[in-house]
Amino acid sequence: MAASLLSLSSTALPGASATKRRVAYFYDSDVGNYHYGQYHNMKPHRVRMAHNLIVNYGLTKHMQIFRPRLVEFEELTRFHSDDYIHFLRLITPDNQHEYLNQLQRFNIGEDCPVFDGILELCQIYASASIGGAAKLNEESADIVINWSGGLHHAKRSEASGFCYVNDCVLGILELLKKDQRVLYIDIDIHHGDGVEEAFYTTNRVMTCSFHKYGDFFPGTGDIKDIGYGEGKNYAVNFPCHDGMDDESFTAIFRDVISKIMEHFAPGAVVLQCGTDSLSGDRLGFFNLSVKGHADCVAFVKSFNLPTLVLGGGGYTLRNVARCWCYETSVLTGVDIPDAMPYNDYFEYYGPEYRLHMPVSNMENLNSPAYLSEMKHTLFEQLKQIEPVPSVPFHHVPSTLQTEEKEAAAHDADEDDPVMMDVAGDKQALFMEKRQHVAEYY
């Protein structure tokens, strides 16, 4: 188990049951030391900025703070292929010219460049998601936060969309050791394609993504993409247009998530909180405020389920930090003032020096008629979900355990088709109208 740096009593949180929620927060100070490149949009430094704001608002006093215990590289191959992870360990800026074929094969290039310490960075954020899921399995926390995670585009054997290792999938696999059903929710402006693809053929994981759709990366996430085989109807996609505002987004989010909870009844939730859906993001086209984005977090929290909260996209650094700090306050149930306390990056937030910023006047192209039509389609899809299994959940020990228990858990995994290592050829299933093979079934 990760060593605790700070362990304080939990605070009572508002919500349907007014129960106390124990919040664990995972952070590694090294995460901000990695650089994709001077002109690259992805800046791991944003996580350090968010953490510093969280500290100076005093929110760490209301959480248990953990530095993740780094998992072995082999743990990453519970989803990713051995040769892909081996390549990420091998490649450096100095030797990349020797591996041109592999760079193309694994989609390492402009969007996902070679930089010093690629796999070490992946190891940090993936370890936090896996370790956070293990804490939820152990019932030593009710909510776990890992703002360095949420890299939802990575595939089994290729990088994609600034993502090399898919910690969302690894965290879900950990949760599946205990929970029969896991719900993955994604409010990043980009479709959560890597997670959807990984679980496209299983009914144990439902993926739900609210995203911009059309001529926009990654180009997937049509409302007609609903899953395959046993996973049919367990992929939920709400394609949106430019200008999505708070009123429209929170309305569709609450309605769809409520219906999912009714029909799917998950035992745990993974919530990806990409902030590129905020107004003014460098790569985004939505118009959400920090409060509008956080309303989704508060709504998921109100169901009182074990919840793993992850970061994701977000490319206007000061707004990323603002949003994740405010959402940390929502998750801990602590009210914080709009006026920003002095912090190490205070000058980034000028001239307003406030947590909440006004949105733009961009037009919302999501008409009420369009949103109503999309909701109706999804509600009809969810009616097809099978009733919640009545069989007892099978508890499997968490990843972070003794060697003896690890061996037993490994044996149990081999008997579970969702948990099996996908390296074997028999795991690959080519699906109709899908670009990639399904990784789990």
Give a structural overview:
The chain is α/β, with parallel strands linked by helices. It has a single domain, classed as Arginase, Chain A (3-Layer(aba) Sandwich), CATH 3.40.800. 31% of the residues lie in helices and 10% in strands. The chain is built from eleven helices and eleven strands. Helix 6 links the parallel strand 7 and strand 8. Helix 1 packs across helix 9, helix 7 runs parallel beside helix 8 and helix 7 packs parallel to helix 10. InterPro entries: HDAC_I/II, HDACs, His_deacetylse_dom, His_deacetylse_dom_sf, Ureohydrolase_dom_sf. Its EC number is 3.5.1.98. It is found in: Nucleus.
Largest sheet, if any? Answer: 9 strands, mixed
In CATH, the homologous superfamily goes by the name: Histone deacetylase domain
Structural class: alpha/beta
Mean pLDDT: 88
Helix content: 25-40%
Counted by DSSP, the helix tally is: 11
Radius of gyration: 20 Å
H-E string: EEEEHEHHHEHEHEEHEHEHHH
Number of strands: 11
The span between the termini is 30 Å
The unreliable regions are: 1-18, 390-415, 419-441
Subcellular location: Nucleus
Organism: Lagenidium giganteum
EC number: 3.5.1.98
Keywords: Chromatin regulator, Hydrolase, Metal-binding, Nucleus, Transcription, Transcription regulation
